[in-house]
Amino acid sequence: MKTIELSQGMQALVDDEDYERFGHLNWCVMKSGNRCYAVHPKRGHDGRSKTYFLHKYVMRWRAYPDHRIVVVNGNPLDCRRQNLCLVRKHIDSSYAKEVVSCLIKDLAAWGKVEKPPADVITSLRLLIMKAR
Fold it and tell me: For the chain, what is the domain count?
């Protein structure tokens, strides 16, 4: 796990592989209500200013237009893959968070793993994505 420095003295958490992909970009903080997001402002090909969200980059969100991203622990600056979950737009986000959180806690409680392996977390995310 690594951190990306943001504006206003804040930091975003990312996995090592995502740091290699996005750590070189200039990121800043955008506040929306009581939440803060890591964003990268950039001019598009049409010359208009666009805002790119780190959590969407990490999850390759554009490949899933009928999905949205749920932040499991509620902190949008925690952009580690284990904290982000793609869910279909019609699934309630609080339900998706609860399912992922409970399953991860259960795995840890079983004593088989301290932290669930990435393939287990990916399987859980796919399970939620397929839920209707």
Answer: 1
CB 105 within 8 A of CB 65: no
Q: Which residue has the tokens 């049409």?
A: 46
Structural domain range at position 29: 2-130
Tokens at residue 96, please? 């998706």
Residues 3, 11: contact at Cβ < 8 Å? Answer: yes
Q: Is residue 18 a contact partner of residue 83, using CB atoms and an 8 Å limit? A: no
Coil vs helix vs strand at 87: strand
Among 26-30, 75-79, 85-89, 115-119, which stretch is predicted with the lowest mean pLDDT? 115-119
- Alpha carbons within 13 angstroms on the beta-carbon side of residue 64 total 17
The whole model's pTM is what? 0.69
